[in-house]
Write a structure and sequence with these properties.
Arc Repressor Mutant, subunit A; 264 residues; two-stranded antiparallel ribbon
Length: 264
Amino acid sequence: MHEKDRQPERYVTIGNHLAQHRELSLTAIGLSTYIQSLPTGTDVSIKALAQRFTEGETRIASALRELEAHGYLSRTRERLPSGQIVTRTVSYNNPPARRQAALERPANPAQPPATAPASEPDPEPEPAAEPAPAPPAPEVELQARELLARLRLRDPRLVLSERDTVRLAPAAGVWLERGLTASAVIDALTRSLPTTPIHSPAALTAHRLRELLPPRLPDPGEARPVPPDREIYPLRTCDGCDRAFRSPTPGRCRDCPPADAHAA
């Protein structure tokens, strides 16, 4: 049962996609709710949040990484005109709608972008949606599910459900199709894990599969020969002392005087 009173002021609207998120920890959900209730320009650094709450810097930093992995937060480093480097934090209250709008946006470069009213500042451009990886071959997908299930053997905190292994298998299959072995993928996903409790192993694994994806190697037929740093001239025999030296044309080495000097 709910007893709801109307709140005409000082409230924030939170969607069920955040309040009932299945992969975010309770700390991350509460932290996102708090950040969305703050006015623009408020300091939301880890130290400032640790002074406001009792969770401590380690748990707050972990919760911020969860929100970044699921699109509720973005943090970028920027240099001010004074030379000072600061972190710009942007909080998104509806990432599912942003992803859907990016997918439905027509890719027409000739179409002029929509402009905001003159009385409002221009909105920040939305990031382009990342293309979904192509489904791997059936045998590659089975191998990807197996390696994801074996993550808990490397670290007991990385226990993934059957549903999570099926959902993350296409992303792990991309690693295998780029020539990495299953053990190499497991090493990359379990290297330098946080020492704090992992509240959402599926979110952490999805974040690492996306951010640590190695580049695709060129096919052997597409590899271009690397030009030498400098041109290597052939060996010549000096006309004056019979010493071997490298030169584009035959003649005398640099230690022998020119031929016209002997004629004089």
